[in-house]
Amino acid sequence: MKGMDGDRLYTIGEVARRTGLPVKTIRFYSDSGVLPPSGRTRSGYRLYDLAAVVRLDLVRTLRELGVDLATIRRVLAREITVSEVAAAHAKALDAQIRTLRLRRAVLRAVAGRGSNEEELELMRKLVHLSDEERRRIIADFLDEMFEGLDVNPEFAAKMRAGVPELPDDPTPEQVEAWVELAELVQDPGFRRRIREMMEHQARMRDRIRVPDNFMELADLIRERVEAARASGTAPESPEADAVVDELAAAYAEAYGETDGPEFRRTLLENLRIGTDSRAERYWQLIGVINGWPEIPTLTPFFEWFIRALEARV
Asked: pTM for the whole thing?
């Protein structure tokens, strides 16, 4: 059948055979306004020219990519370009993929740890949180911990720098760490303990700082205390004197002070306030989430040193 310009016109059945689409689908697109007929037969049947067939191929491709009909109408009306639509939908798909990966990790975590209903609900909420909302959980926690306190800015900056960033394709271990971290920062006992630490830091802000060689000190304590415990040396025993003297001297040097009774009393107070297994766990969980190198457990070694200092001051 010929159009007025000599181009071939196709019936809806012929278009269906050329494109492989069902007549029902073509009729739906036609009724929706995205594929208006190029003409009609005397009997009123719809006819389509080659341009309409090409248009239908574009409509089908966009629909297969998940583009809605309203957006397709805008593309066909040249209100937006195919490139703009593709970019927007690629971004949307990226978000969907991240969500699906997170759901997969959550399901694997649930299957692996035999979660109860409360944990399952917490994991469900985690899936629906945005990256910004997850960051706000920690930011709000720290805001409350620092509220009204004049803490050392350097100390506060280091605390706030530890932001957990769940990757796009997390492991079940990272999901579990996020769940545990979310539970931890909402625990009243943990919040009271961290607030106590912050208040102490504010009181001592001009005297307390994290020494540049903190990890070296921590490694020294672990090494010396590990050896003492292996040999059966109790922290209160005379055999522990040499260990205490070495460690106290190392701390005094790091702080630029002189070891002595007054320094040891201050050191003991700081260690008592700052040593807490849950605070250490807080940083370990952030490390797991962020994929940092494993943060070792040092609290038992510091507790031994604290008991040794208590026996001597």
From this structure: 0.67
